[in-house]
């Protein structure tokens, strides 16, 4: 807990400070932090910083090390802390959700190729195509590049339940020609950056095509979508 009054840190008498009393009586378990016994200071890792600014800060003594317990000030401190705590809760919940999603995706990434191989062995048929299966199972946004006879197709398939606007940058070693979509090209020292940011509704697909002469090297980068919700197929 870091306490400030008019930009001056309050170093001593933390236990006698109104700020400390307010922090202790908040139920931090509701906001995703551990709080032994359901009261008192929460366990970290977390930093709670409270700054009280006023022309007349009520201190407990002339040493100005702690704030006095004035109900109006305590109420304002509590409201401010709870507002920040709600944002903290949202952040922690999203982080936990992304961690679970990442673990599930890692497991599926290992299992699906093995399943495809076994299915081919049992049925005596060719190994089934599974490149897009992971994106469909995880409800991800899939970004795929297909190159055929000098024609490059960037395909975005949105398997999620909301509209996504990925920011796709395809770095090409030769100059691209004939872009058919709403994309721009930037030339930087012999590399061409094809920038494309389509809005793709849930369950929809967007495509961008262009042509290249001769052999070309590609490197696609995607921003605007969490890594855990993205499947890139080169």
Molecular structure report:
By secondary structure, the protein is α+β, with helices and mostly antiparallel strands. The chain folds into two domains: 2-93, Ribosomal Protein S5, domain 2 (2-Layer Sandwich), CATH 3.30.230.10; 133-233, Immunoglobulin-like, CATH 2.60.40. The chain is built from three helices and eleven strands. The protein has helices spanning 18-25, 71-123, 133-137, and strands at 2-5, 8-9, 49-52, 141-148, 151-158, 167-172, 183-188, 191-196, 205-211, 218-223, 230-233. The strands form three sheets. A four-stranded mixed sheet has the order 9-5-4-11. A four-stranded antiparallel sheet has the order 7-8-6-10, with no helix packed on it. Strands 2-1-3 form a three-stranded mixed sheet, with no helix packed on it. Helix 1 (18-25) crosses helix 2. It starts with a strand and ends with a strand.
CATH class of the largest domain: Mainly Beta
Structural class: alpha+beta
What name does the CATH topology of the largest domain carry?
Immunoglobulin-like
What fraction of the residues are assigned to beta strands by DSSP?
Answer: 25-35%
Uncertain ranges: none
The count of DSSP E runs of length 2 or more, i.e. the number of strands, is 11
The gyration radius over C-alpha positions equals: 28 Å
Helix segment tally:
3
The helix/strand series, from N terminus to C terminus, equals EEHEHHEEEEEEEE
Largest sheet: 4 strands, mixed
Helix content: 25-40%
Average per-residue pLDDT, rounded, comes to: 88
What is the total number of structural domains? 2
Strands in their spatial order, largest beta sheet? 9-5-4-11
Distance between the termini: 48 Å
The outline comes out as elongated
- What's the architecture of the largest domain in CATH terms? Sandwich
């Amino acid at each position: 807990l870091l306490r400030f009054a008019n930009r001056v840190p309050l170093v001593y008498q933390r236990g006698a400070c109104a700020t400390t009393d307010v922090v202790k009586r908040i139920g931090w378990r509701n906001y995703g932090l551990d709080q032994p016994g359901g009261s008192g200071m929460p366990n970290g890792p977390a930093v709670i910083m409270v700054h009280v600014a006023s022309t007349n800060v009520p201190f407990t003594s002339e040493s100005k090390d702690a704030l006095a317990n004035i109900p109006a000030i305590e109420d304002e401190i509590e409201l401010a802390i709870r507002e920040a705590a709600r944002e903290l809760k949202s952040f922690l919940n999203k982080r936990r959700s992304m961690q679970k999603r990442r673990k599930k995706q890692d497991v599926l990434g290992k299992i699906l190729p093995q399943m495809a191989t076994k299915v081919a062995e049992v049925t005596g048929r060719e190994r089934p195509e599974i490149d897009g299966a992971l994106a469909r199972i995880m409800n991800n946004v899939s970004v795929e590049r297909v190159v055929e006879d000098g024609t490059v197709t960037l395909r975005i398939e949105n398997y999620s339940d909301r509209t996504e606007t990925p920011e796709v940058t395809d770095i090409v070693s030769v100059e691209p020609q004939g872009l058919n979509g709403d994309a721009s090209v930037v030339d930087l020292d012999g590399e061409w950056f094809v920038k494309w940011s389509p809005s793709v509704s849930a369950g929809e697909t967007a495509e961008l095509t262009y042509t290249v002469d001769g052999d070309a090297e590609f490197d696609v980068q995607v921003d605007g979508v969490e890594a855990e919700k993205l499947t890139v197929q080169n």
